[in-house]
Amino acid sequence: MTKCNRLIDAGRRQFLRGGMMATAGAAVTTLAGTQEAKAQAALARVDYPASRLGNIGELTENEPLDVSYPDDDSPGVLLKLGHAVEGGAGPDGDIVGFSVLCPHKGWYLGYNADDRTFNCPGHYSRFDAEAGGQQVWGHATSNLPQFNLRVDDDGEIYAEGVDELIFGRLSNTL
Ligand code: FES
């Protein structure tokens, strides 16, 4: 073998060794990335506070009661609708709670007792209180955040979570 061929052969072996090291490095990087992603997914889970929002005795059918959840900066309402609905709590399954910040740009929603919708004065989105806050019209791209409610034997109403992201937040708890 000539000197020139030996150099070419040595270069080829070096190239292959480098490729194997790069592949092994990529595998380690991918594994580390997967573990990091799992850790971040675990951190992304939100632990909600359980907060007392009111008592059944304070509610009048189809009249919103102002509350806030999961903290004082997040206005919402409790509503007793008079018949069982999606997400309804209490003995009749008719008590619901919603954020009243519009998911589009955060305007404060008003309640229309006639058709039981929340209405936005900003760009006129509407959300159905009897259908889990489903948007029925407008610019918003998500439904109205609904509180997960629990009612105890004394009629005390507790919120224990929210099913959508409240407007203006990266997380429902800050
Ligand atoms: Fe409510 Fe735009 S802020 S529709």
TrEMBL record:
Pfam families in alphabetical order: Rieske
EC number per UniProt: 1.20.9.1
Entry keyword set: 2Fe-2S, Iron, Iron-sulfur, Metal-binding, Oxidoreductase
SUPFAM superfamilies: ISP domain
GO MF term set: 2 iron, 2 sulfur cluster binding; arsenate reductase (azurin) activity; metal ion binding
Enzyme class: oxidoreductase
InterPro entries the record matches: AioB/IdrB_ssu, Rieske_2Fe-2S, Rieske_2Fe-2S_sf, TAT_signal
Residue stretches making up the Rieske domain: 62-158
Protein name: Arsenate reductase (Azurin) small subunit
Organism: Paracoccus onubensis
Organism taxonomic ancestry: Bacteria, Pseudomonadati, Pseudomonadota, Alphaproteobacteria, Rhodobacterales
